[in-house]
Each structure stands twice: as C-alpha cells, then as structure tokens.
C-alpha cells in the first residue's frame, strides 16, 4: 500500500504578464486521508534575472512544510519538494501529512515576462515516524568576552552548495566562535544543528527573509517565521513583531544589491536591529551601506552595524568564511549571549585589524554625557599587521584622521579630543594606510570599502542620560 500513488494536481500553463503587485501564484491541493508523502514537481525554463520561480508547500492551516529554489545558470529546471512523516528533501520539514486543503505557492522571484511552466503534485499512501530532534541545550563555549563570528551563510537547505556540517567545519577552520546559517525562507536546517553541539562553536537559529523588495536575516529564533511579506496582510512589521517576541533580531542585508536591494518602505526603522555595513561580495555597495547607516544613526535610529560573507560555498576562496567577521562582546559563549551582545551594540567589524572604541570611557553601544564645556575624549585601540590610519567620525562627518604607529601585531591607542553641543554619536574606522606620500589621500581623506580594515559601532553622547 505504501507505494500506491495518486496525482492530486497536474497542469501545464503560463505565468501571466508581469504586474507591479503580483508576487505569488497559489494553487490549492486537496490531500486525502492516509497520505504518507507528498511530492511536488515544478518545471520551467529559467532565464536569469528575468524568469525565476520558487516553489513553496503549505499545510491547510498555513504551516510551512518546505520550499525549493533554483540556484545556478539559465536553462530547463525541474524543482522537487518531497515531504513525508519521517523524511523530507532539503529545505523541507518532515512530519505527518494532515488531510485537507494544502496550498502550492509559486514565489515569482523574477517575473519580467510571461513564461510557461508545469506543476504536478502526487500523494503516496503510507505511514512513518517523525524524526526525533535533540533539543538539549548546547554547552557554553566560554564566559564573558569577545566572540568572533559569521552572521550570513547558506546550506543545501536553500541555495547553498554544501551541507550544514561543511559550513560548521569551515567556521572552525577560520577560527570563528559563532556561526549563523541563514537559509532563505526555511528553518529546516535547524534540525541539522544539534548534531554539531560540543564542537566549540555557537550555532545561531537564523533564517533569511527573502522578499521581492529586500532581504533580511532573522537571528536568535525559537520557531519558524512567516517571511512571505509580499502580500498586504503580512508585512515586515508583523515579521519584526514575531522576531522580537522570540527575543530575536532583524538585520537588513546588502541594502544596495540590485533587485535584492532593500526597498521595503513599509518597514519602520525602529523595528530594525542590525544592518550589514561590510558584505564580502558587495564591493562598492558597501560604501553606500555605510552611508545609509550614518543616515539612520543621525535620524535617531539605534541600528547596529555588522558584517557578513553571504557564503554559499565555503570551499570557494571568493566567499570563504573568516574574511569579514562580526566581533561581539557577549556575557557568555552561547546563542543567547551572542544575540544579547549584538543587541547591546558592543560590536565591531573586522576586515584585517582589531579594534576597540570608547568615548569618555563608555563602550560601544552605550551612551555617555559630555564633560565640562562639552569636551569628550575618544579612545581608539587598534592592532594591525600593516600600517593603518584611524578615522574618527561624529554624526557621520569626519573630525580627525590619525595615522597609527607602525607596530605590527601590537595594540596601541589613538586619542582624539572634541567638543560637542547637544546629542550626537561617535564612531571609528580603521583603513589601510596608502602611504605618507600620497597627496590625494591626505588632501581628501580618501577611503572606501577596499581600504577598510575595521569599523566600530557608535557611542552616543547625550545632554542628559535617560
């Protein structure tokens, strides 16, 4: 009986013409009692950045059961979702198959022309036992201190090239202390995380919201979040509320990345916790991201700057882990410790130099008051293996440029004095020194993403602490 199959849906049709608010197409599927497994097959011709379709499978009550993407180049595609009581394809969740009205959602990731597609859903009878998941709390890897990690990576459960275990091994080789595997749409990769407890690495429960108007990582979750926000009844505000209810964080990713740029104008910035200011693969877009960050900070939003490689293949040197790192001061070496540390903002971005930053003794993420006559003392501690220059900024504007002494591998302190009236914030950047004989650099204080070696998060200065 377990091999008996019934075709529940079979159609050959076409996408309609593109429309501004057409993001999803839904096909209902009536699943009978006794179904032990469902298989969905979507076939179409992918045209990169023109026609790209993802498939999603939802239970009668809207519970997410799985998705499949279409990474790679153009050509004919056959995307398969298979879910059963005891097994599921990557990106999908195993478990009982309830009878009733399921939904196939076609996510029109790119929809710039009408295009044909074929869709079939098959049910098979049978029973199985849902796999057990180890829910024991992972061990602490340390006490209070600095932890270095990766906040943006992908496995086979979305569009990554390698399983979770390969990413964990790569993070260990890179000397990282924590790792967020932020697969698109799904939390199915969480089932693979417990198998790597005890390896001296904090693993965050994360996923990437992947909308048609921007991407955002969600960190520190305890349950799947409905990330399908391209529909009017479910917005980024709903997502942020859900994430924060779980004690998690929302991070805007690669905000200037073409069709994946952040254009969710329905999002109140006070619901955003983090923003990528150093993305390994975004090149000059990082300069725009830092500009946006300063704009948000000067507008009064408390958004913490972080880094991410967006690694899809840890064996590819161009996206290998450990090249851009988020460094967090955490109360303990655990997922909650790292998430709370990110929220607190004692965080800096590493791209080759170590950094710490204080204003009137206050740490990054904290607030302080100016001294007598509005005086503040800014201390930048830096360590690098190459000559570097320290840039000190107030409210996004450069107030001082100080070459650090050439002492490879040694900590040294650069101190800058300033006078401030009213509230504001300070932050610091460390850049590779182009050489004392470069008049263009010293005349214009030229710096960009390619010279960045480290960036602090702000210390706020207030007239009165609240």
Automatic annotation (TrEMBL):
Q: Which SUPFAM superfamilies match?
A: PHP domain-like (SSF89550)
What residues does the Polymerase/histidinol phosphatase N-terminal domain cover? 149-213
Give the matching InterPro entries.
PHP_domain, Pol/His_phosphatase_N, Pol/histidinol_Pase-like
Could you identify this protein by its name? CehA/McbA family metallohydrolase
Identify the species of origin. Nonomuraea roseola
